[in-house]
Amino acid sequence: MKKRVLSGIRATGRLHLGNYMGAVKGMLELQDNPEYETLYMVADLHTVTTPYKVEELRKNRREVVLDYLAAGLDPEKSILFEQSDSPHAELAFYLSSVVNIARMQHLPTFKDKVKQHPNNVTMALLNYPVLMAADILIYKAGLVPVGIDQEPHLEVAREIARKMNETYGTDFPEPVRFATRGEYVPSLTGEGKMSKSIEGSYINLTDDLETIQKRLAGAPTDSGKGEKIPTSGGVFNLLKFVELFEGIDARKKYEQAYRGQGIAYRELKENLAQAIFNELKPIQEKRSELERKTSYVDEVIKRGAEKARKIAKETVLEVKEKMGLSFN
User: Fold this and answer.
1) Distances in Å between the alpha carbon of 261 and those of 228, 234, 236, 258, 271?
2) What single-letter DSSP state applies at residue 21?
C-alpha cells in the first residue's frame, strides 16, 4: 500500500517563494517517490475564512493551479484539485462534534488572525483547523508537506483523528508533517515569515529579475560588519536566502566577511537576485506556455476533482455510518 499525502495552498493569488520553498518543494519530492500517493489541492475554502473579494477568488483559484503545474506538479503522478470540489466541508462538520471550542480559541494561529482581522472573527475562522483536519483525514493521508508554522493545526488533526477513532471506531491515521529544506522562508521585511498579506515581504514566482532586485533592495541591512552574526532581523534573513538559493558555502563566505572586512550588501543582493531568478526562470517559461493551454488546464481541474471526490465520498459515507447517520 502506498502512503497517502495531502497538501494545499490558499487561493490568495500567485504563489510566492515561501509557498514554493515551504510547500511545493516537498510536494515535488513526494510526488516523484513511488512509495507515495499524492493529492495536492487549491485551498479555496480556507480562503473564505478571512475577508476576500469574490472575483479575485475566482481568478486566484486558477492562478494556483497554473503555478502548481509550472513548478512541476504532474497530474499524471498527483491528483490536483480544488478543495471546494470535494466534500471537505461536510466532513468538517462531523469532525467538529468532537472538538472543544476552547481548544480552537487558544490556538496561537487563531489569536494572530483575530489581531489581523478584528472585525471579521467568524465561525469559519474559528473552524479553520477543523477544516484542515477534514482536508487531511478525508483522504486518510498520513503525511502533510507544510511549513513548521502549521504544526499546531496538525496537532489538532491528530487529536481529532484519535477522538474519532476512540468514539466511533473509525480508522483515521494521525498525520505528521513532512519537513522541507526551506520549510520556513523569512519575510523580506526582516520580521516573521514571507506572507502575501504583508506588503514588501514576498517575491512571487512570476517576478522578473528587475522586480526581484527591487524587492531585495528594500530588505533592511546594517553596517555590514560585527563580531557576531545576527540571529534575527533583515541581515539574518538575507543570509538565509543566500543559503537557500546559493548554498551553504556562499552563506559561510558572507559570514566570514561580516566578521572581517565587511559585507557589500549591494553585491550580495545582486548575486542573490540572479540566483533566485535563475531558479524561477524555467517555472515562468512553463507557466507562459500553460496560460495558452486553456482547455488542458480545464481538463486537469475536472479530472482532479473526479479523482479526489471518489476517494473523499467513500470516507464521508464511512463516517456517517459509524456516527449513526446512514441507513446502512
Assistant:
1) 14, 19, 18, 7, 18
2) I
d(CA 139, CA 156): 17
Whole-model pTM: value is 0.91
Q: Quote the CA–CA distance of 268 and 98 in Å, as a whole number.
A: 52
Q: Which residues contact 69 (CB under 8 A, 6 or more apart)?
A: 75, 80, 286, 287, 290, 297, 300
Which tens digits make up the pLDDT trace of 6-20?
999 999 999 999 899
Report whether pLDDT(182) > 70: no
Beta-ladder partners of 80: 40
C-alpha cell at 258: 561580516
Q: Where are the domains of the chain?
A: 3-183+294-322, 209-289
CATH code assigned to 3-183+294-322 = 3.40.50.620
Per the CB < 8 A criterion, the answer to whether 164 and 98 are in contact is yes
| Distance of alpha carbon 157 from the chain centroid | 16
Whether the per-residue pLDDT at 29 is higher than 70: the answer is yes
Confidence of residue 181 (pLDDT cuts 50, 70, 90): low
Map residue 117 onto helix, strand or coil. Answer: coil
**Any idea how long the chain is?**
328
